Amino acid sequence: MDIATTPTNPDGNPELADAAPSPHDPPVIRREDYKPFPWLVPQTELDFDLGLEKTRVTAKLSVERNPAADASTHLRLDGDGLSALSVKVDGDAVNDWEMDGPGLVLPLPGDSHTVEIVAEIDPSANTQLMGLYASNGMLCTQCEAEGFRRITFYPDRPDVLSTYRVRMSGPKEQFPILLCNGNREATGEREDSTHWAEWHDPWPKPSYLFALVAGDLVANSKPFTTMSGREVECNIWVRKEDLERTDHALESLHRSMKWDEETFGREYDLDLYNIVAVSDFNMGAMENKGLNVFNTKYVLADSDTATDADFDAVEGVIAHEYFHNWSGNRVTCRDWFQLSLKEGFTVLRDQLFSQDMRGEAVKRIEDVRILRAAQFPEDAGPLAHPIRPDSYREISNFYTATVYNKGAEVIRMMRTMAGVERFRKGTDLYFERHDGEAATCEDFITAIEDGAGLDLKDFRRWYRQAGTPTVTAAIEHSGDKTLLTLTQSVPPTPGQPDKQPMPIPLKVAMFDRETGKHGGEQLVILDGKQKSVHFEGFEKPPILSINRGFTAPVIIERNVSTDDLVFLASHDDDSFARYEALQELAVRHLVAAASGEMSDQKRVEGRNAIVSAMHAILTDEALDDNMRGELMMLPSETYLFEAMATGKRKADPGAIHEQREGLRRAIGRGLAEELAATHQRTSAVAFDDPAGVGARKVKTQALALISAGDPDKAAEIAAQQFDSADNMTDRQGALMVLCSLEHPARQEKLAAFYDRFKENALVVDKWFTLQALSLHPDVIEQVRALATHPDFTMKNPNRVRSLYMAFAGNPQGFHAADGSGYRMIADVILELDPINPQTAARFVPALGRWRRIEPGRAALMKAELERISEADGLSRDTFEQVTRSLEG
Ligand code: B3K
Ligand code: ZN
Questions:
Q1: In this predicted structure, what is the pLDDT of residue 23?
Q2: Buried-state track 283-301, b at ≥16 Cβ within 10 A, e below 16
Q3: What was the pLDDT predicted at 249?
Q4: What pLDDT score was predicted for residue 8?
Q5: What are the angstrom distances between the C-alpha of 838 and each of 11, 179, 572, 876?
Q6: Helix intervals (H) in 645-790
Q7: Is the CB of 339 under 6 A from ligand 1?
Q8: Pair 162, 41: CB distance under 8 Å
Q9: Using CA atoms, how far apart are residues 739 and 748, in angstroms rounded to an integer?
Q10: Which residue's C-alpha comes closest to atom 8 of ligand 1?
């Protein structure tokens, strides 16, 4: 059979629709081409004969014709880098199969068969860390999105659900612990010093949720009793030396299990929940059924080695992966275009959980800060895509802030419009209707419509249209009547020149200038291009507080005076709006100053207004420190680039940096006494005081501002804080400030830190990051030197990110005017691409923002992208990102 000329694609898998991919023109996969797979695979049996260098995989699939799909005479299985040692159909060896590119095709005449394929793989050579790979002497897997095809030939697509039975065997001394999905049903030993285990997962699942781990591990265990009274064995598996840092992860898991029962009515469904920490991992963690695999970074935490923020991150990621058991595993995705169905919803669920654990106001600000730092630039650049994309070349490139974080915001808007109780009715209906299915975003929207009683007809546009909408708010006032007019526009994005208006829910309140109060908050749904709302009873034009709680992921434009912003910053009873007013004050000032639109006198006035707002924040006794710490943070340079690059104006990283540093200096000098007092006050709060987390946050912020005003004094305080620290938050905060200073204490404390923690990879990562993020004038040379440090390796993603991802996020270093920062990152991409394409491609977006940067730097960034694009043998991942960045 000549597969290449087969007129119709026999399996309906859109991924193989454009077969014969060439490395220089990988096929485009389109959402509209989706077809169900012609075969069902009710059962999958896998047998692993494990070895670090050689693992033999025998896969036995029972297949049946899929009555809901077009019939096919062939079975087409995905593969990646595999060769089959033998193929059997119904127990008999066959040789009429063929390779079709990396996949395998074999004729199947009947309606149901068993297909058995044997293949061998070398986990130790797997530097991509997709499929089965070796990490620190253990074996583990990562299958989402398309890693299972690197383990065995299989219909590796999320809509093929199968029940798995797995037998694994290997040398007992090397791999004393053998784990897989589901329940362990049998174990045994052989005389040749190998042992084996048999696992069975009763819940049908797609191949991307398969996991296997074999290694020398120990567990921290504690049972959880579910709401129906079942006992679940919960284990956190780590290397022996890490065991003492696993309590927080285990407690976080228990809290997540309880919260999901109480908040979404979801109960865990197996008797066992295993989490394994591995140090070589491409991302944060993976929700494999009953066997989550985690980056050590999101498991291990104690106060000596992890910061308060690390503790929060561990809790958040443990929760996120646990919540996937329902939003992702019990109800999974039909195809990868639906990724936001599980990711957006699960991010919202983990945000709501963390809000309940740690306080809503601060968590909301943190989430919005992430959205603005990562998603807004993505939505405004060449890689912009809707939360449900229409096409891709490499799905790994679509695990983005848009799919995850904007996806969560879109579902949050549904929740805001429905209210908490009706939203819950919608999610209950969704889980009930689609349990055990591979669903679509459309299924989710329909369930919310039906269950919550919402009309989401136009709201669906949020799923199809990319780009951050801008809402202009204008107020007209006459007599005692006030008219608020809201107008929206959604910008053009690559492939989507024209947009339709989208329903935007905005919480608003009008403050009376006289009383300083508002008469109640209301939810206005801007459901067309423009909408006007009437207010009565204000003698003077009221002050508008809008998008309170950040109810919609949009940019608000309004003509508001500095005085009104100062009023909102100090009086608004919505803490997000208060934060927002301060940010707006700083953004407006800094963008105008960086654009050269400001006289020296105006600049001084602007700085003074912000200094007095900061004074109010430092001295307001009603504020708790956790919120104070948020309010003290100035908008990031990346966010300021976005705000500056509007219309024809481009962002000028040099000018933004100069102005932002100037403002920090003015605050440091103008509030020297208050900052010193704040630092002193917060230093006196004991580590385990309930107010400790907030105090430490404020302490670091205060120290950073002191360092802008008086570097020598800051160096002294920082050195002292470093020496007396009894926890990593204070130690890291002090070292962060020292890293940016030209002072002898810098080197001294960096060396002390390294010496003390050199055996702890996660802390060494911090040591690299602190230096790569620093404001030191020699940061580029320092990063270059760190890349030759014996602890640096391109093979470990955490280490690569700790140095280079941090550097790419250091605006001063990355945007060095001579282009040396851009060159460094482009070199990293080229060196890393053959080793780990997924991680390499993650560096491209930083260079891809060139169109919004001033022409001198833009040309240098573009030249680096062109240099990458000309390299031979680029991966599909990097090829796609670079091509889109140059075209967009
Ligand atoms: N679902 C995984 C991400 C997989 C990424 C593959 N490139 C983790 C998560 O979002 O929970
Ligand atoms: Zn997820």
A1: 54
A2: bebbbbbbbbbbbbbbbbb
A3: 99
A4: 34
A5: 27, 26, 44, 9
A6: 653-670, 672-683, 692-709, 711-724, 728-739, 744-757, 761-772, 779-786
A7: no
A8: yes
A9: 11
A10: 286
Whole-angstrom distance, CA of residue 108 vs CA of residue 616: 76
Catalytic residue among 321, 409, 864, 880: 321
Residue 803 in contact with ligand 1 by CB distance below 6 A: no
**Ligand in closest contact with the CA of 148:** 1
Amino acid at 334: R
**Residue of 343, 404, 836, 877 to mutate, ligand 1, most atoms within 8 A of C-beta:** 343
Look at residue 13 in the predicted model and tell me its pLDDT. Answer: 43
| 19 pLDDT higher than 70 | no
> Which ligand 1 atom is at minimum distance from the Cα of 838?
7
Q: What pLDDT is attached to residue 888?
A: 76
Distance from C-alpha of 35 to C-alpha of 67, rounded to nearest angstrom? 13
pLDDT tens-digit map of 292-330: 999 999 999 999 999 999 999 999 999 999 999 999 999
Q: Indicate the pTM of the whole model.
A: 0.97
Residues 6+ apart with CB under 8 A from 661: 708, 775
* pLDDT at 5 exceeding the cut of 70: no
> Tokens 């299915």, residue?
437
Please give the C-alpha separations between residue 168 and each of 353, 485, 612, in angstroms, as whole numbers: 36, 65, 66
Give yes or no: 584 in active site: no
Tokens for 659, please give them. Answer: 């102005």
Q: For residue 774, give the amino acid letter.
A: S
Whether ligand 1 lies within 6 angstroms of the CB of 144 is answered as yes
| Cα 329 from chain centroid (whole Å) | 19
Distant-in-sequence, close-in-space partners of 407: CB < 8 Å, separation ≥ 6: 340, 343, 344, 345, 347, 387
Verify whether ligand 1 is closer than 6 Å to residue 287 (CB atom): yes
Query: What digits encode the pLDDT tens for the residues 46-69?
Result: 999 999 999 999 999 999 999 999
Mutate to test the pocket of ligand 1, among 133, 144, 838 (most ligand atoms within 8 A of CB): 144
495 torsion bin: left (phi>0), alpha (psi -120 to 50), beta (else): left
Minimum mean pLDDT range among 17-26, 607-616, 685-694: 17-26
Cα 120 → chain centroid: 34
Which of 208, 298, 346, 399 gets mutated to test ligand 1 (max ligand atoms within 8 A of its CB)? 399
Report whether 197 contacts 168 (CB < 8 A).
yes
Taking the C-alpha atoms of residue 78 and residue 199, their distance in angstroms, rounded to an integer, is 24
Mean pLDDT, residues 856-883: 98
701 three-class SS: helix
Q: How confident is the model at residue 641 (pLDDT cuts 50, 70, 90)?
A: very high
pLDDT reported for residue 570: 86
Residue 11, ligand 1, Cβ within 6 A = no
- The alpha helices in 13-60, defined as continuous H runs, are 14-17
C-alpha–C-alpha distance, residues 174 and 51, integer Å: 9
Ligand 1 contact, 130 CB (< 6 A): no
Task: Find how far residue 708's CA is from the centre of its chain.
Answer: 31
847, 825 in Cβ contact below 8 A? Answer: yes
Q: What is the pLDDT of residues 140-150, one digit of tens each?
A: 999 999 999 99
Contact (Cβ atoms closer than 8 angstroms) between residue 702 and residue 673: no
Residue range 218-268, pLDDT digits in tens: 999 999 999 999 999 999 999 999 999 999 999 999 999 999 999 999 999
Sheet holding 272-278, edge to edge: 218-225, 231-238, 272-278, 291-295, 285-286
Residue 25's pLDDT band (cuts 50, 70, 90) = confident
Closest residue to atom 7 of ligand 1, CA basis: 396
Mean pLDDT over all residues of the chain? 96
Average pLDDT over residues 841-861: 98
Q: Are 624 and 617 in contact (CB under 8 A)?
A: no
